[in-house]
Each structure stands twice: as structure tokens, then as C-alpha cells.
Design goal:
Distance between the termini: 37 Å
CATH architecture: 3-Layer(aba) Sandwich
Number of helices: 6
Structural class: alpha/beta
Strand content: 25-35%
Number of strands: 14
Radius of gyration: 18 Å
Helix content: 25-40%
Shape: globular
């Protein structure tokens, strides 16, 4: 698996990441969602640089122009619900992508141990396509690995891009061991070193789903 941390460089992405972490700015749910959307747009642009391109002729009012355009078919998948604003940002760029959605949650038992439950999955075929899986947080990595294998029941993509703006070092290591394929790339903007005993990322940003959409019932 290839790992690309865009936060290692200097760009406006770091400003958006700083704002989604900031406990005072987080109080504005609309701004939190919009920042995740803008982060998604930046990741999509960077992913677009890895795609296959073809030459297309475009008729302008004054003639014919040859343009280089992507030729890959893309499936954009998101783990509900925290990934939705990120999904929207990526979809703003890859506006012709097909879409897939996965409902996953942690079911806790004793001593803060939990299993990942997948309750709902809808996806088109990913056979021969570029698969992009978006989730705002990569904590243990368990839900992302389960989602990846579930979507592969729909076919074999030519490449899979995992977009996780905030990651833990544990989650990155887990993905590297679980998905050691050359056809998988992890994109992140920050890698935090600590997980709590409940597997929350520190410093992280809190519960992205709650910050975007309000407290769970």
C-alpha cells in the first residue's frame, strides 16, 4: 500500500485541517461540513493526477480543441455518516462518478472492546474501475478494511484510493498489514500518534459525525 500524507507539505489544506480540529470553530456545524467538503475537493484533485487520460476533441464556438480528459470510470464510496461532507467534496470534482454507501458502526462489549457491524451496503459494480473510499477518521482501520472487502464483492477495481483526512499511526499500520497491495493508496492530511482505550484518536478532532450532523439519538 502506498501512503501519501498531503499534510506534510505546505498548502491551504493545512488551514482547513486546523479549522476542523479547532474546538471553537467546530461549534459552527455548517463551517465544519464545508471545511470537510473543501478537504475532499483537494484530495480529489490530487487523485485526479494519478488517473488515466485520453485526448478528446471539443467543439468551441470558433473551432476544434483537443483536450486531455480522464478516461477512468470512478466509484466513490463513503462510510456513513461522518464521511458524507467529505464525499460531497470529492463528488464536486468527480461529478460523473457512481456512488456507493456503507453503514458501519462500533458495537461495544466489555472492557471497551468492540466489533464493527456493517448493516447496509449499496454499490454499483467496481469491476475495472477506480474505487475511492472516503471516511473522515481512520482510527483502528477495522471498519475501512471490512468496507474494502465488502465492496470487492462487486468486482475488482484497477486501483483503490482510501481518503482519510485524520488518521492514527495505529490505523495506518493496520491498513499497511491488511492491504499490502500495490493497487491501494491511502491519502491523509494528518497522522496522530495516540489512541485512547476506546480507540478515539488523540488529538484528533472528536466525533466527526456529531460535529457535522448533531448528537446521535
Amino acid at each position: 500500500m502506498t501512503i501519501i500524507n498531503l499534510g506534510d507539505g505546505n498548502s491551504v489544506l493545512n488551514q482547513f485541517v486546523a479549522e476542523i480540529r479547532d474546538k471553537d470553530i467546530q461549534k459552527n456545524q455548517m463551517r465544519f461540513r464545508r471545511n470537510l467538503e473543501r478537504i475532499g475537493e483537494i484530495f480529489a484533485y490530487e487523485i485526479s493526477r494519478t488517473l488515466t487520460y485520453k485526448t478528446a476533441e471539443v467543439t468551441t464556438p470558433l473551432g476544434i480543441s483537443e483536450c486531455r480528459v480522464p478516461s477512468d470510470s470512478i466509484v466513490l464510496a463513503t462510510i456513513l455518516r461522518a464521511g458524507l461532507p467529505l464525499h460531497e467534496g470529492i463528488l464536486n470534482i468527480f461529478d460523473r462518478a457512481q456512488n456507493a454507501f456503507v453503514a458501519a458502526y462500533r458495537k461495544y462489549g466489555k472492557d471497551n472492546k468492540f466489533d464493527i457491524k456493517l448493516e447496509y451496503v449499496t454499490s454499483p459494480s467496481v469491476e475495472g474501475k477506480v474505487l475511492v473510499i472516503a471516511d473522515t477518521m481512520l482510527a483502528t482501520g477495522a471498519s475501512l478494511v471490512l468496507t474494502y472487502h465488502k465492496l470487492l464483492e462487486k468486482g475488482t477495481p484497477v486501483h483503490t484510493h482510501l481518503v482519510c483526512p485524520i488518521a492514527s499511526s495505529y490505523g495506518v499500520e493496520y491498513l499497511s498489514k491488511s492491504l499490502p497491495h500495490k493497487t491501494v493508496t491511502l491519502w491523509t492530511a494528518a497522522v496522530d500518534e495516540e489512541l485512547t482505550n476506546k480507540s478515539y484518536i488523540v488529538p484528533g478532532l472528536g466525533d466527526a459525525g456529531d460535529l457535522a450532523f448533531g448528537d446521535k439519538l
